[in-house]
Give the backbone structure.
Amino acid sequence: MYYYLSKFLGPLLNPTNFLFIILGILFIYYLISKRKIFLKILSLNIFLIIIISFLPTGSLGIKYLEKDFIFKKEYKNIKNILVLSGADDRIIASISLAYQYPDAKIFYVGGNAYLIKDINNDDLTIAKKFYYDLNFDMDRINFIGKSRNTIENFKEIKELNLKYSETVLITSAYHMKRSMMIAEKQGVNVIPYPVNPISGSTTPLLNSYQVFDVTNNLSKFNTFFREILGIIAFKITSYT
């Protein structure tokens, strides 16, 4: 039930979606009632949207998520490469790592999180095509495809009974903090291999504003908010 409810409410948990929806509702109520309280709340809502849009709040939040996973460690004796489904850069990183460790196997862990399944939009179908198009040896890849979220990912990973000291986990740097928390809870003590850090931790502020983009700011804030919400939800459910 929680899974299906979260999928229906998911768009509302996107902070910018929520703020713009509330903005529209407040505006309609103000036009109907002309009550000043709605105008004040409307002004606060607009102020929050401006703050998120024009200040690097999302970047600062993602910097917090990524701060422990910006730089990769030295890796030795890698036999297993776990890839959480998602962005293409995770697949590319797994291939690069597999070439460095020719005895290693790739385990691509994903599935389909949509309520209505579409085989053409399935993570595993897309990933298989990606690996195949890059002419990678498909015999070195195991596709694990029943999970719908990160918690289910690690339940499936645990069932693989891998030697964790020889296993790296590939996911986006901003997603690694939550992933490692869930992994630890499941007793899956893998080695983090973060990819594609997006916080711009080493980028001077002036340089950041040379590529200033309101849409990018909103997108980063949404990413940060979803991860923090996921961390909070995981911690609550872990202690219940």
Observations:
- The first strand starts at residue 80 and ends at 84.
